Amino acid sequence: MTITQSAESPEPVADGPRPVDGEPVWAETSAAFTELLPQTRRALLRRLAVGQAEGRAPSMVGAVVREGRPVWMGSRGSVEGAAPHGDVQYRIGSLTKTLIAVLVMRLRDEGLLRLDDPVGKHLKSTPVPEATIAQLLSHSSGLTAEPRGPWWERTAGELRPEPADLFDDRPQRLAAGRRHHYSNPGYALLGAVVERLRGGTPWYEVLRDEVLQPLGMARTTLDPQAPHANGWAVHPWADALLPEPAHDTGLMAPAGQLWSTPDDLCRWGAFLLRGDDRVLSASTVAEMRTPAVPPEENGWDAGYGLGLQLVRRGGRRLAGHTGSMPGFLATLWTDPEEDVAVIVLANCTSGPAVPTIASELAGIVTAHEPRIPEPWRPLSGPLDPELLALTGPWYWGANPHALRLRADRELELAPLSGAGRGSRFRAEDDGTWTGLDGYYAGETLRVVRDEQGAVSHLDLGTFVFTRGPYEPSGPVPGGVDPEGWRV
Fold this sequence. Notes:
Oligomer: single chain
CATH topology of the domain at 90-258 and 274-304: Beta-lactamase
Structural class: alpha+beta
Number of strands: 21
CATH class of the domain at 90-258 and 274-304: Alpha Beta
Number of helices: 9
Radius of gyration: 26 Å
Strand content: 15-25%
Largest sheet: 9 strands, mixed
CATH superfamily of the domain at 90-258 and 274-304: DD-peptidase/beta-lactamase superfamily
Distance between the termini: 70 Å
Helix content: 10-25%
Shape: globular
CATH architecture of the domain at 90-258 and 274-304: 3-Layer(aba) Sandwich
Order of helices and strands: EEHEEEHHHHEEEHHEEEEEHHEEEEEEEE
């Protein structure tokens, strides 16, 4: 179900099922603040219209997901003489990589591979056996950007029938792990890893069974299925069109083969924000959004995680991917802080700044209608008095911090002086906590007790937190001056 605005209609039309009173289904969820205001919808449609007109795209579709639900779709131009709708396929190019990355992370979560495994452990014929799975996911393996041979996106995959045919005699252009260097053949290798660890099943069949079907993405396919847009090149100096080829790219397909629809990509955007335990947990999806390579510039505005591009736009951090194939442009950005995903698709090789349009659509939603936070609720279940006793002020030296108890026995440590390091901590079965973010990510927090069993202090990666600032009797490493505080 999508909420559409076409080139002819200034107001949205709900194309999903309706209850008997005629209101669209999404109106029933207005208490969750998913319905967009008319002025927001108009601003979204105008930005899409400007992008399509200035970029001279034969057609362009945009969609917005908020709080896990599609709340707007707009289109300009036409496909086969009609305004495109949510079920029209476009080729999505490198958005395909995000789906391949999810398959790889599923294998990791199942224990079938490790991210630091060299790819040669799973593929015996690769010319770069030392490149790790994580490096391939994050484009930090140093592999060549493109495969050997003619322009792979415009030629048939039969030209490169074997994995060795993807690489020339110098497959690695840069030292592995040192910097970001986009590599399409790297994702061809990841697709082969998926097939190898799934017993030889083709990667698309694995994707269909393990990801697309659970998420209801039946219209995301390896080859185009009607209704679909045709790909066009637009003449740079005249309003004329040239059809672009749409070859099966063979072994390179995991880098950019898939076709999908606005409706399906809305489901994918919701998944990349929230996860789905049938496919990947929310924590693993969040791990994919973590920067995996150092920035190229001073203070990064773009980076890469594990299969996801990361950008900063208008003070917001977005995660997702851009995509292009001959005749098509695509972008999907998610804003986890605002719980918003935006999709923009066009059927032209170049012209419209689709990534910018998508980020600005996200900005319109967050500027016009910033997210309303969830209501505060008390913790559920019985309250552990020992955990409650740990909360309150703690001091790292003389620097005050507050320890708070959250849901699921999670702890949060935050500095109170405006300077210092904070983190959230996940409870472990052995009575310790593991840092989830910030400086202390992955570090262990322990509650240390004295001989009588009373809490003495907190040990956080060897840093000692005491109940008072530099207490003379406290277990402060190096001791405390016996004369104490003075003026």
